[in-house]
Design a protein that fits this description.
It is a single chain. It contains seven helices and no strands. It is mostly helical. Helix 2 packs parallel to helix 6.
């Protein structure tokens, strides 16, 4: 089961990275097109007029996808912002209870968000909702990616919750200890 969950988190991180790379490539293409147009103008030739249609909209959708798909990996890597001032001063047993309570609330909220994000994507698909850009993009696609990312995040929270309940250490805790030692 551990291998399956780690694989799921890894796939989500790779998809997030691919979305960020796609943003970079699209923006690079747009900038390159403008540079070439400027060079053509300077040479007295008519500009080609290259543009990436709906670039801002597509980049926004990709950024949302990358942000949500990276949630589980950043939690497990211990790089999400956590306020540890209060629990850092607690005795070990009290800290464990506090972390279990926080993970219960976080998992419940993430599951709630996943349910409604998935419902929104299904409704958008059913009603064939499209974006308003030059390229009409079915809205269920970015909404489904968002729902998938928050779903994987909910699974990661439940994974850490079960690990704590079994007496283990949450994935983010080992990364925090390692980061503290590096400082």
């Amino acid at each position: 089961m551990r291998k399956l969950l780690d694989g799921l988190y890894g796939i989500a991180e790779w998809l997030a990275m691919a979305a960020l790379c796609a943003i970079g490539l699209l923006v690079f293409a747009q900038v390159l097109g403008r540079v070439l147009d400027t060079i053509l103008k300077l040479m007295g030739m008519p500009p080609y007029g290259f543009l990436v249609p709906s670039l801002a909209e597509i980049a926004g959708f990709l950024l949302v996808g990358a942000s949500f798909l990276a949630l589980a990996g950043s939690l497990r890597g211990g790089v999400q912002i956590r306020v540890t001032l209060a629990i850092g001063a607690m005795p070990e047993k009290m800290r464990r209870v506090a972390e279990i309570a926080v993970l219960c609330v976080a998992a419940a909220l993430a599951s709630f968000f996943f349910y409604y994000a998935a419902k929104l994507a299904i409704d958008s698909h059913r009603f064939n909702e499209l974006s308003y850009g030059i390229i009409p993009i079915p809205l269920w696609i970015p909404q489904a990616v968002m729902a998938g990312g928050i779903g994987v995040f909910a699974i990661a929270l439940l994974d850490d919750l079960v690990t704590l309940l079994r007496g283990g250490q949450a994935s983010y805790a080992s990364s925090e200890v390692q980061a503290a030692e590096e400082i």
